[in-house]
Amino acid sequence: MRTLMLLALLAPIPAAAQDFNCRNLEAEIACDAGKCTVTGDQGFTPMGLTRRGNMLSICAYSGCSEGRVLVSRSRGGIAMLYAEVRRTTGPGGEREPLAVLYDRTERTAQMRWRGFSNAMSCG
Fold first, then answer.
1. What integer pLDDT is reported at residue 61 of this predicted model?
2. In the prediction, which pLDDT does 3 show?
3. Which of 36, 43, 71, 89 could bridge 31 with an S-S bond, Cβ 3.0-4.6 Å?
4. Which of the pair, 41 or 27, is modelled with greater confidence?
């Protein structure tokens, strides 16, 4: 019986239906002072956006940030998520807002964080 309990604890946890991984493979969009610029044609490093349960994380260039989802609303296959994320690699820092619109049917996301407003493909 003890062995079964131990195996159950060590077994991988299946991903929840709302979990996703996204990347902006086609372009990077940076916005500042009321205007946005688009960098494409492999002239940027794609970001990674992940939801695992009630946590959102985003990785860009040399670091990652993570935080609990504070606001979550869904309707018609679209989820709106908001988290305040803090750097988890390198020096810490203040919490920063991360807003995400995720389309479960199309498997795409739009995110806004630290001056970036990227469209992303999700798996």
1. 86
2. 46
3. 36
4. 27
Give the pairing of strands 116-122 and 20-23: antiparallel
Alpha helices, DSSP H, located in the chain: 2-10
**Strands in 76-122 per DSSP E:** 78-87, 96-103, 108-113, 116-122
Say if residue 93 is exposed, middle or buried (CB neighbours under 10 Å; 0-12, 13-18, 19+).
exposed
Q: Are 31 and 39 in contact (CB under 8 A)?
A: no
Kindly state the average pLDDT of the residues 32-46. 91
Q: What is the mean pLDDT of residues 41-48?
A: 89
In sequence order, which residues have a C-beta less than 8 Å from that of residue 108 and are 6 or more positions away?
22, 102, 119, 120, 121, 122
Which residue, 56, 55, 106, is CA-closest to 78? 106
